[in-house]
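Ticket #4471: structure export looks truncated?
Reporter: QA, pipeline team
Priority: medium

Steps to reproduce: submit the single chain below to the structure queue and open the exported record.
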Amino acid sequence: MASRVSLKAKGKSSKGSKGSEDRSLLDSAKEWTTWGLKKTKVIAHYGFIPFIIIVGMNTDPKPQISQLLSPV
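Actual output as written to the record:
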């Protein structure tokens, strides 16, 4: 048997604009969330050690930077 060819349009349907607006809004929200989480991951990755050093320098007694970075 021959395969049937579908003539339906792929993607957004033209019947209801409300549904397509909701879908595009949902896609935008997902895209921005993904973008934000990727940026947050990079900031956390490169900012963790400097953050720990800054917190360590602001404690009492105030250590020198060499005391914070040395393993002893």
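Status: closed, not a bug. The export was complete when the record was re-opened. Leaving a note from the reviewer for reference: The chain has a mean pLDDT of 80.
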